[in-house]
Fold this protein.
Amino acid sequence: MRQKNGMTSTLEAGAPGADFIAEIDHLVWASSDLDQGVAEISGTLTVDPVPGGSHPGLGTRNALLGLEQRQYFEILAPDPAQFEFRSFGRWIEGLTSSGLLTWAGRTSDMDALAEAARAEGLRPGPIESMSRRRPDGSSLSWKLMMIEGHDHGLLVPFFIQWSDFHPTQTLKSVARLERLRLSTPQPKALERVLAALGLGSAPIQLVESGTPELVAELSVGGRSVQIR
């Protein structure tokens, strides 16, 4: 959806002729310290995140909250145990405050999504195979792809294609994502990008603003909570 001067319009559903499915997978809330981040989110939402795991090679680890509709909320922080791989983890460690960093889209066909992105003049990054160990020792694996060639920064999601297992299969749903609000100086351009990536039917509101911002509107325990 796009909102300007109080008027709201709806994104065209999906990418024209797309043979893949794309939808919101999870929200990424970053903190320079995992325990601190867990305490902040627990205090805001009055629900307790559960341990996720470590991301080998990225220097990060996470904790998770289950959302309805096969979505989840990720608290991402540096992993002190990964001294040799600290590039991304070190960047997060340097954040001056915690906050909603970006979001992930989920796709059924990464190759088809990449083709649709190129058709829109975007530059899909390499499709990377990734994995992490869950607390019970089992492995969780997925493919990941970044989308470049645009001016919208982290308002445009990265994409995941999961293997057989999705994190929400062992997470209790404690909240619902009602809407993802993206504030941007270029709502029409961002609208075209998201539609091309198959996200036209997602609960997204685009707001024209001079300051880019990502806000998640969650419903939890009968309350409406905004997470920035």
